[in-house]
Inverse folding.
């Protein structure tokens, strides 16, 4: 059993380290090829262009090596040994924070630099490399993979996980018998006669006195029951299958489709040679910083609107006004509706004019 856990831990660490290295190597290699192509277009010797290319590649290898030895591996060791600085990490995830700073930020920076190098050197549009598809998709995919691995650590990969879909028992209450209720009512009548009250008519003290929790529990039955695993029989019982480990993969990709679409717009030639490239990459990176928080953090909903939907709404309105329909209007509508409903239901409904409970 211990060997299986160690094997799973080793696989997780290998995949996360690969997600740290591979995007950096790919992006830096593409940047080095752009710089070498620009130098050749300017008429410089082929040897000088190749020298610059290999210097940039060697710099990327040196950067990954130094980052792994100085930051990544020591951080992983302290987390595994549950050192004091990482012991109470209940609301944030240090691995995602380190990955965002060490990998995602440099990748976005060199993607922007590669486009600007071609713009400043007046590269012809047919020779302009927009860094399409592979580098951009690889950066986002690696980030999502690190997030999925962090969420999967608390689950075992083999065997089934029983999901409780029914009501969960929260408390037990005592149910009184019929004889107990009759005895209680008889005692109440005797007490009323002793106090001079009429039997059958409750006294003021009895009406005004609220029942205690023990009295209330003896006259009420519990409405909760034990949670049971939902099972369905029939021809379509296979469609009721649900596992939290599979849901993690679905939710992790769906959560970042909006950011992926905005980063994709930056690879369009007209956008990549304009100043719109900077706000796209800057606000896309800011929206990704939400990964640092735990998945169940109550601040995620507010940060999702403030860091993603509101900035993306203004960026998409500007892109559509300047370049036309280069971004789907579906995401524009999504940003608008999410921002509007968040403000309305969380803030405007508290105002007197929007509070219908005071009208009836």
């Amino acid at each position: 059993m211990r060997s299986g856990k160690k094997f799973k831990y080793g696989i997780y660490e290998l995949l996360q380290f690969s997600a740290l290295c591979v995007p950096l190597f790919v992006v830096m290699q593409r940047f080095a090829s752009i710089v070498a192509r620009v130098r050749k277009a300017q008429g410089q010797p082929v040897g000088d262009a190749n020298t610059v290319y290999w210097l940039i590649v060697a710099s990327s290898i040196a950067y990954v090596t130094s980052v792994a030895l100085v930051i990544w591996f020591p951080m992983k060791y302290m987390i595994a040994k549950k050192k004091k600085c990482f012991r109470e990490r209940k609301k944030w995830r240090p691995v995602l924070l380190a990955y965002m700073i060490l990998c995602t930020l440099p990748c976005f920076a060199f993607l922007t630099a590669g486009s600007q190098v071609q713009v400043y050197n007046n590269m012809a549009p047919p020779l302009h490399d927009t860094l399409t598809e592979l580098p951009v998709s690889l950066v986002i995919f690696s980030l999502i993979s690190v997030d999925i691995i962090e969420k999967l650590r608390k689950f075992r990969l083999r065997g089934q996980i029983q999901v409780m879909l029914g009501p969960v028992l929260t408390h037990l209450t005592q149910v009184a018998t019929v004889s107990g209720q009759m005895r209680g009512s008889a005692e109440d009548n005797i007490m009323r006669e002793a106090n001079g009250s009429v039997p059958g008519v409750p006294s003021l003290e009895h009406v005004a006195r609220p029942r205690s929790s023990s009295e209330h529990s003896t006259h009420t039955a519990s409405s909760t029951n034990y949670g049971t695993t939902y099972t369905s029989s029939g021809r379509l019982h296979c469609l009721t299958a649900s596992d939290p480990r599979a849901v993690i993969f679905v939710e992790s990709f769906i959560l970042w489709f909006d950011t992926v679409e905005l980063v994709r717009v930056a690879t369009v030639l007209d956008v990549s040679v304009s100043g719109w490239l900077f706000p796209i990459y800057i606000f896309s990176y800011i929206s990704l910083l939400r990964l640092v928080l735990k998945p169940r953090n109550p601040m995620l909903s507010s940060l999702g609107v403030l860091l993603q939907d509101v900035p993306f709404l203004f960026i998409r309105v500007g892109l559509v006004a300047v370049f036309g329909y280069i971004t789907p209007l579906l995401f524009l509508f999504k940003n608008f509706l999410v921002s509007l409903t968040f403000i309305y239901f969380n803030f405007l409904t508290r105002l007197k004019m929007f509070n219908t409970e005071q009208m009836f």
